[in-house]
Design goal:
Length: 320
Amino acid sequence: MTSPLLPPHSPRLGLGLAALGRPGYINLGHGDDLADKTPQAMRDHAWHVLDTAWSAGIRYFDAARSYGRAEEFLGSWLRERGHGVSSGGVTVGSKWGYTYVAAWRTDADTHEVKSHDLDTLERQWPETLSSLGRAPDLYLIHSATLETGVLENRQVLARLAELAASGVRVGLSTSGPGQADTLRRARAVTVDGVNPLSAVQATWNVLEPSAGAALAEAHEAGWAVVIKEAVANGRLTGRGDIPPAMAQVCHEWNATPDAVALAAALAQPWVDVVLSGATTPEQLESNLRALELRGDFPALVGLAESPQQYWQTRAGLAWN
């Protein structure tokens, strides 16, 4: 199955830069992956992972304003390597709505601040253009929820409609136990009788599959669907407490837990792209094994937690 988001013959695995653009993140063991956390060293490290991804055929890259210098690292890499600076050879997604405030510290009390108002959108859109050196192909409201009111904000929606009319595919990313409700509300948005939103990036994994039906509906309606956190911020990797049923599947397939988790997401018929959140080339190589695993993985169905339990656990993960 090919994806309309990707150039021909590209794998449906993309690379997210949440763990590559800033020194602190909530992935299990993230701090141990980065020997030198200075900005220059992290840029060089990010470029190394991006080079590995490109060599493997990956052509979808995801960033956000709140990912520290992720947009800057990605944009400079695209320009230096000559990889699809204009649209066509590569697909770039980014997001607005969170501001990075940790000042490059892993021990900051607050790492990012959420604001879904028009002022934030108007400030962050030109910042994204400057950092990437081009317009993103997808531009998403970062972690939209019903509680922020962004899907009722007529000024924000009108501005997003302008971006959509200019050729940028706009949409939202979702988080929290109400992902499905947020997505269904987003699909009902209208600006002058037309919904400017047509893309969603959502958390889906074998521990938290609750948005699946809503994502399938969005896909059927022509929306682009991107999956994030398929390895549950490291819980579904060798660093996590792997459930026995998953360990058995890994044994049968001779594959690592991260590869199996990503393969389970790729197996969903409504998915266009699944993001790897790898911090190192070695992690990315392990993730890429998912492309070779084909199956329905029925043994993993019973691993689902309640959405409330899953998101409570995620909220308790330490920045490191």
